[in-house]
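Researcher: We're reviewing a set of sequences before deciding which ones to prioritize for further study. For each one, I'd like a predicted 3D structure that I can look through quickly. This is PKD domain-containing protein. If possible, include the structure in token form so it fits the rest of the review sheet.
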Amino acid sequence: MSLNIILKRGAYLMLAIVLGSLTSCEDDPANNGLTAASVDASFTVTPVAGAVNTYLLTAQPKGVILSKWNTGDGAYQGKMTETISLPDAGTYTITHTAIGAGGASGTATAQIVVATTDPAKGNLVQGGFFETPADQAKWTVLNLSATGAAFWSYANKSATIHSPGGWAQEGIYQAIDVVKDKEYTIDMLVSSPSGSDETWFEVYAGKSVPKSGVEYKDNKVMGLSTWDGCAKAAFSGKLSTVGCVKNDATGTVSNTVKFSETGKIYLLIRSGGNTFTKDGITITKVELRGK
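Model: Here's the predicted structure for PKD domain-containing protein, in token form for your review sheet.
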């Protein structure tokens, strides 16, 4: 059974979702009764008072060992209570998957309608969805592979970095105007159906102008790194969730960045490696937003 609930921004109310799209596992003698017969994935959605387009998701905890959430950008492991921000106007389907004893699971969904885009959190990245040739033209290639062995390609509303390995790498970037001391967050969807070894995927937000043939190293914000323990196997999700590269400014895994001067910075993505995934690393929905 599936039950959708529509919320409009500004209406402060709590709505419970009752047994939405619930799936279950039956007891099996082989598991000695340790597998749950069913898992209640219901959750409530509450607009956060005083915050624009921000919502508190609260799952019922009984019989739930693990919660996974999906706000439309791929599932991720979260907490029983999650605060989400939906800065752009639109209709969002929120999915909660609850995992119980023995791996039994249940799923519930709700819809949130965001009427107005938050002007303070608009996406400053142009062409971040790579939908059209005009979008793709917003990005400049940083040539780092002398032979052209590593390269970026565009297809299916996404961009993919390909490398034959042997440390071949390539980058793409665009200039963005930012405001002094304002905090921003960077994120994107990243995926690969197969893993790599001795491979990196790094995101920078620096003031230095990128130069052909020169590795960009100005203000690393986030990324993937097999040395740090991610991208060794298949992955899919927001980089802020699946990434493991530390932020140069904070020394922690964080996608937050701020700048000491108002002006132009360069959002740059650089990737390559020694044993690079045969399928490439694909990105879409690239965002840089004010907090």
